[in-house]
Amino acid sequence: MRTRKKPSGTRLIPLNPDGIKPLAASDIPLIFLTRNSLRFLESFLTHYRGLGVTRFLCVDDQSTDGTREKLLNEPDVDLFGSDVRYREAKGGLMWREALVGLYGTQRWYLNVDCDEYLVYGGCETKKLPEFIQRLEAAGILHCPAPMIDFYPEDSISSAVFDGSNNSMPWTIANMFDRSGYRLFRTSSGMIMSGGPRDRVLGRPAIHDELMKYPLVYVEHDTTFSVSIHKPWPFTRNFSPIAGSLLHFKFFNETESLIKEAIRDNQYYKGSRSYKSMLKALDEGKLVNLKSDISVHYENSRQLEQLGFFKTLF
Question: Is the dihedral of CA 57, 60, 61, 67 positive or negative?
Answer without folding.
Answer: positive
